[in-house]
Amino acid sequence: MGPHDNPGANIAIKSIEEVAHALGVAARNYYASTADHLHAIFTGLDRQTCDVLVVGPDHALAINRSIIIAAAAAGKFPVICALPEYARDGALLSLGPNRTELFRRIAYYVDAIFKGTPPSELPIEEASKASLLINLKTAKSLGITIPAPILMRADELIE
Questions:
Q1: Which of 72, 92, 117, 123 fits 112 for a cystine, CB–CB 3.0-4.6 Å?
Q2: Neighbours of 71 (CB within 10 A)
Q3: Which residue has the higher pLDDT, 99 or 65?
């Protein structure tokens, strides 16, 4: 999948690049649409060339998250992502929109449309609540200590 195929991924990539630039670190973008693409990407990565792997919020890519988690564990790469399934499966952490809240808002929109409100009259909303999951087992295996204030803010700690 190329960068033009997923507008949401493009937004995430731009944000990641801006943060990386502000921190003075380099960011490389890789695009994968198949398991073979993922294997090829990980073949060229090592701890000298990659400090952390940030996986964009691509649900199509999430189908192959077991490959990402296994390769990251083998290469000792911390993985940060937006989807909670990654953290539950072994990524260091996930930070993204709280899906429960998103689904509640979807119900509001469906209700409004069924009651006759034209979709064009409904406001576009941005997620207002984020969900932070931290995998403590992964942090320990990577030798990473998560500061207490961050642990206290987590919505879920995976042990």
A1: 117
A2: 18
A3: 65
Q: In what order do the strands lie in the sheet with 53-55?
A: 53-55, 79-81, 93-97, 130-135, 156-158
Ordered alpha helix ranges (H), the chain:
7-23, 35-43, 59-62, 65-75, 84-89, 99-114, 136-142, 148-153
Q: How far apart are CA 112 and CA 108, in angstroms?
A: 6
Whether the CB-CB separation of 74 and 44 falls below 8 Å is answered with no
CA proximity to 79, closest of 29, 134, 129, 159 = 134
Residue 18 pLDDT exceeds 80: yes
pTM of the model: 0.79
* Cα atoms in the 13 Å half-sphere on the side-chain side of 73: 16
Label residue 154 exposed, middle or buried (CB < 10 Å: 0-12, 13-18, 19+).
middle
Ordered by where they begin, the domains of the chain are 3-158 (3.40.50.2300)
